[in-house]
Amino acid sequence: MSTLNKKTVDDINAKGKRVLVRCDFNVPLKDGVITDDNRINGALPTIKKLIDDGAKVILCSHLGKPKNGPEAKFSLAPVAERLSEKLGKKVVFAADDTVVGDNAKAAVAAMNDGDVVLLENTRFRAEETKNGEAFSKDLASLCDIYVNDAFGSAHRAHSSTVGVTDFVDECAVGYLMGKELKYLGNAVENPERPFVTILGGAKVADKLNVIENLLNKADTLIIGGGMAYTFIKAKGYEVGISICDDSKIDYCKDMLRKAEEKGVKILLPTDTVIGAGFPDPIDAPIETCVVSSKEIPADMEGLDIGPESAEIFAQEVKNAKTVVWNGPMGVFENPVLNKGTMAVAKALAETDAVTIIGGGDSAAAVNTLGFGDKMTHISTGGGASLEFLEGKELPGIAAVDDK
Ligand code: ATP
To answer: Which residue among 300, 331, 366, 388 is best mutated to probe the pocket of ligand 1, counting the most ligand atoms within 8 A of its Cβ?
Structure first.
């Protein structure tokens, strides 16, 4: 996959051109108010660059999951307002239920160089998620150049991420996307070694392809979180009522065997924090104790890696030159069960290695625990970064021109 060789906004001549930028403005909203504007901040470098270049900057994005076309609560209008504040200039919001309707066309026709227009939520058009041709053509009709800066949506072939590129002559990636390709791409394709990957989260089944792909790339694969118990069982130990996928035991045995053949080290938790059951609600007080991972009692559930495992994992991170982490080590939403995740986050924060967080829950965990600014790169796309780690070609990236 030639993901490291894509045309970027630095390779285009945008002066006076209408440039459509697919952003990721899928921000959390509460009663119409944006509660976290990190995604807007992430889009600013590309937008500012194009404004400075004298382009006519047309922005589009999806927001949430409107089911049957336009829904006021999923309008991008609040994003236009926040964006205006951050850019210190007017962002014209093209309110249009069909996204590319009369309002949008008029707003774009009235643009001067350096102006910014934001289109309405692309998912107000049902064809968006089906990569429909009519909508793709509508979007393309507004612009001369297309820029994709929405890594979080790059794993989906939609009209605004893929279809549109069939009808625009020049397509590039934005800075945010470029950064994702640089860090994730280099880490997976060309890592400085030792390359340690840490996988966690709830289920093995969600990460089968990631495990398999990383076995071919990494020197060490650390497995924690709920997914560790299927591996522990595959090694012949009982795991009590811990989350475990019996249908994947043979798969895990296969992976353990492959790792041995390839000389890849697989580290599983040697000790486990157990409780009488999953906390309900998730952050409820819970009584726990630590046992060997080989001796989890039949009526107990493993909910976090134990302190010895945290120490071993941290030591491995210390010796690494590249670390990629995806998925928490335990039920980190609970203050009693976040110690393992915290220890790993701390180890990553303290190392000089290149540290990459694969989005989603791990990104949330690292930020919540206050280690966000200590990481080399925190991916903005949970699903997209996982597919990247699986070695898949992401359609939204493949569709952009090579250099
Ligand atoms: P990321 O978002 O970083 O890609 P992920 O979202 O894929 O990670 P998930 O598979 O969704 O990770 O798992 C995250 C969830 O796993 C968390 O909500 C956490 O509470 C849960 N979890 C972690 N360890 C355990 C465990 N031992 N038993 C049950 N659930 C666990």
So the answer is: 331
Residue 222 CA to residue 212 CA, distance in Å, equals 13
> Which tens digit of pLDDT belongs to each residue from 318-339?
999 999 999 999 999 999 999 9
Please give the pLDDT value at position 1.
Answer: 44
- What lies within 8 Å, CB to CB, of 84 at 6+ separation is 90, 91
Between CA 216 and CA 199 the distance in angstroms is 15
Q: What percent of the chain has pLDDT over 70?
A: 99
Residues linked to residue 146 through DSSP beta bridges, in sequence order: 20, 171
Closest CA to 351 of 340, 343, 341: 343
Protein residue whose Cα sits closest to atom 23 of ligand 1 = 330
On whether the CB atoms of residues 94 and 117 are closer than 8 A, the answer is yes
Cα–Cα nearest to 159, from 191, 134, 188: 134
What is the rounded distance in angstroms from the CA atom of residue 243 to the CA atom of residue 224? 12
Q: How many CB atoms lie within 10 A of CB 280?
A: 8
Those residues of the chain that have pLDDT short of 70 are 1-3
Q: Are 57 and 19 in contact (CB under 8 A)?
A: yes
Give tens-digit pLDDT for 106-121: 999 999 999 999 999 9
Of ligand 1's atoms, which has the minimum distance to the CA of residue 326?
A: 3
What pTM does this model have? 0.86
